[in-house]
Each structure stands twice: as structure tokens, then as C-alpha cells.
Amino acid sequence: MCGIIGYTGNRSALPLLLGGLAALEYRGYDSAGVALQSDQLRIIKRRGRLAELCKALECEENLEAARCGIGHTRWATHGEPADRNAHPHGTERLALVHNGIIENYSEIGDFLKRKGYRFSSETDTEMAALLIDWFYLQSGDPKKAIFAATDMLRGSYALGVVFAAEKERIYAIRRDNPLIVAVTEAASFIASDIPALLAYTKEYYRPDDGILAVLSPGNAVFCRSDGSPVSLSTERVDFDVTAAQKGGWAHFMLKEIHEEPVALGRTVSHYLGVDGLPDFKNPLLDRNFFARFERVQILGCGTAMHAGLIGRHILENLARLPTSVEIASEFRYRDPLLSKKDLVILLSQSGETADTLAALRYAKKEGIYTLAIVNVVGSSVAREADAVLYTPAGPEIAVASTKAYSVQCALLYLLAVYFGLCRGTVTPFLAKELCRSLGKQAPESVRAILAQNDRICHCAARLQSAEHLFYIGRGVDYALCTEGSLKLKEISYIHSEAYAAGELKHGTISLIEKGTPVVAMMTEKKLAEKMISAIREVRARGAFVLLIVSAEIAEQYQIPYDERLLLPPVQEVLAPFPGVVALQLLAYHVAALKGLDVDKPRNLAKSVTVE
Ligand code: AGP
Predict the structure, then answer these.
(1) What value does the mean pLDDT take over residues 324-331?
(2) Distance 399 CA to ligand 1 centre (A)
């Protein structure tokens, strides 16, 4: 939920730290700070966006001399956003930045109080910093101090530490939180995520939990707590710095929505074999593998879970495979009934969502095979699952997930086709047809709905002053409504609720009054008449209905509405692809019209690495 960055090299550290923090601000942005190591350790930190820190830095002198430092951008867990709670935390001997959550911070605090420490913040992070300081005072050895302290810490962390006496050195260690280390000719970096380093390198190390990285300019060594050295191989990203920049778009979210046609096409072509059938580029993931399973359990959080709802629809319809979808944070606490014939699929854009990672570990502990569908290469979920399928969508920076959802749906669609082949519910001919139309019609239909941007903006203007709003649909359209509702809530701050249209009359319709906006999704022909009844019911009570409907249904039925968005012609089974983009753009324009910070909505962060 936070972003950490560190630099040691032959250049002034501050500009590189600030550039890295700017690239990481999507990970949390309620405060920011830096620690610079020159003749002494200097910590400058401020509540608010990075711009507030930059203003404070302008009032400082002689910062440019520092060639080693660490930085942090925060999403508050313990302690309100305030200067005193911003990172880095430390003493005159050391400074520390932290992403994650120290669960036993209170116990550590009691230990430190007994050692005579007093605290200047309400954060869990300060406990980690002072605990390292305590052990450093005992041993005078940074590595021993860090290992002794992390032995006592419970929770999750990615830590960056600099010591006043250890010139040009940065120390970093992680547990259940992302941490990468990069080395160039004359410099070394730590960061939470690769976008912060793309301006300098595409190659990086990703140390495992408990491995300490010791960086010096142009060099990094890794060791275990017993001092034994660890050699790591580097990983490399295939996109460049522009992929993680706005590039002239008003917002990352708008850019990433417009990247969906290419991302969809890339995903399908990546996972299609020369025979036109799904090929998951992993010899283990063959027909025998898939034939083993009699049930699929899809787990994820937020938008990823909503993509799972689309996946269930496709898996059950194409492969007749019993499929359940569950919020990852609920899954393991209900003592789920699992069988060795289950396949657990974990959906995650970041691959660092703590709830999803915890659900993955639970399933593995129960001996259930886990398949991860993840966008960030080498992320924790990807590394710990039994198998991983990467979604080649490129970096997703906006907090509101868009293209990741669509490519997850595309990959689930290909899995459903493949399961159907294995289970005999889909013939090879039909499978090829389905894959071909997925690769062609899905991107084309998304381009067509993107071309309706002005129309969608017009509809958004009709909704922007709403306080409460409903999304209604049936079947797969109800699944789409869950995602449309989340998008609107998280970036426009308008309360909305996705509701199964058939369920409204069982109570919730009491909330409909004159002018209540209702977005009605209609892409499934067999449910059209039922949906028309639901629309009539809410309009009879004064609702303002924005109808989002496939062209084919609109031609065939007289459907009452107040505003209408026609979805482009597409095979019904592919309707979720243009359908969700209409909903994403609708939410985007409502938030933009309200003048809100679309890419960094209040209270949120891109990757929720705490439970
Ligand atoms: C999506 O718009 C939200 N920002 C959020 O619900 C997100 O989908 C969720 O936190 C899961 O993230 P993940 O895909 O990185 O695991």
C-alpha cells in the first residue's frame, strides 16, 4: 500500500528519489518523505501529496550533496496522515522506510519503552525502525541489527534502511511485500515496483522473503540471516518507461482503458497455438492436467473478483464445469469444503494483494492445486502459485483497474474453451471459432465503444450529481454491474449498488424514488423480457434509467429508457468486453466531470498489501 525507493550512486540522490516516488505515488499518497545520507542523516517528510514534500525541500539547503538516500510515499495504516507519521522514521543513527504492516507493533512498543525509547509517531513503522536501532546499539552491525529485529517482527514488510555510519550503503529486506533491487554501472536502487526504475533499467533482482540486500554504488550483495551469501538471477520487463507514463493522456485510467483493444489482442495471440486452439505455454498445463479437475474455485478481491464472476459464467456455459467465485478475504475463514479435484484460480493484477496471497497459501496448505492469473511478472502470487498465467497487459498505474479486468476475462475465456475441449462440451471446430472471434471481435467491439466516448460523456453528465445510483442486470449483466458499480464508487465517490434485477422487487425497490438513477445492463437475449419488466418497475417509481444494451436486443424489443447507450454488434458471449468498457468510461467521465483525482482516489492505493 506504500511505495519505497532507494538510491546510492555517483549522482545527487534527491532528484532520483523524487522521480521514483512520483512513479510510485499510485501505491499510496497521503504523505511522503525522504532520508538523505550526507555528513549526517537528514529526514524531510510531509503530509499530503508528493508536491507538499517538494515544497518543503525547496526550503532546505545543501541537499544536492547527498548521493545516497531512501524515500517513501504512504497509504496510512497506523496513524493518521500527518508529518509525524510520514516515513522515513528513525534516529540520528538510522532512517527506515516501510511498506506493509507490523502486526505486533504494540508488543514491540512495550519492549522499546522498557529500553527507554520514546515515540514521535503513532505508526507501526516507527517500532520497526527503533527496534533495529536498539539492536544496532547492541552490536554496531547493521546486518545483525536488521536480522535480529526482523526475527521479532510479525506482519508484512518491505524495508529500506540507511545508517549514518554506513556511507553509500542501503539495506533492504522483505516479507510478503514487493521489493526489487536494481544495479546499474554506477548506481544501485531499491523500489517497491518496476515503474520507479524504468528510467534507469529494465533488469532487477527480486529477493525472496528474509534475504537481506546490501547495496553500494553499482553493486548489490544478498545474504541470509546466518551470513551465507545468496546469488540471485535478474528478471527483466519487456515494456519501457513510456508504458508507465501518462504520455499525454489526461489520466492513466483513460490511457489504460484505451489500451484494452491492444491488450486483449496481445493476450489472445500470446495464448493461442498455431492450431488456433488455446496454448498456455506450459507443458504441465495440458489436457491431462485440466481433465483432473471437477470444480473450479475462483478467488480474488475487488475488480479481480468481478472478473471471476465473468469467468464463472463462461466456464459453466462453455465447459459445464461447476465454478464458484469468492472474495479472497472471506474464503479461508469459512473453513471451505475443498477437494483434490478442485482447481483454485487466483486473479490479481498486482500479484501482491495480501488477501489473495493469504487465500493462495491456505489452498496450497490444503493440497489444492493453485493457478494464478497475474499481471505483474514475478509478483508474490505468481511466484507462490503452482502455476501462473501472466496477462500481458503492461503496467496498470491507475488505482482503478480496467485493462487488467478485461485481459483476465479473456484468459478465463480461453481456459473455459480449453476445459470445454477436455470435457467434450466444445468441439475443436467450435473451439477454434470461439478463439478466433475472441481475438478479433473483442478488440474490435472495444474500439467501437471507445468511439462512443462523447456519447458516454453525455450520459455521465446526467449522473454526476447523483448521491445514490443503482446498476441492475441479470446473469452475466449482473456480473458486469458489480464492476460498473465499483468503478463509479471508487473514483467518483457516488454511492452505488449493483443489484440482480430480479431481486429488486424483494425489498430494495423501496429505495427507488423520483429521479433515482438506474443503469440497466442488457446483453443477454434470453433475459431481455425479464429485464424489460424490471426497467418498467423502477421507471414506474420515478427512476431515471440509463439503458446499456446490445444493438441486437434494442432492435428486437421496445425497451423504455431515459438515456441509452448502444453496444456494438458482437457475439453475445463476448458482450462483456465492450460492456465493461462502457461502464469504465461512464465512471471515468463522472469522476472527471466532478473534477476529482481519477488516478489517485481518496483513501485508496493501487496494491492492497495488508489484510
Ligand atoms: C480495482 O479498481 C480496485 N482498485 C481494487 O478493487 C483491486 O481490484 C483489488 O484491490 C485487487 O487488486 P489486485 O487485482 O492487484 O489483486
Answers:
(1) 97
(2) 8
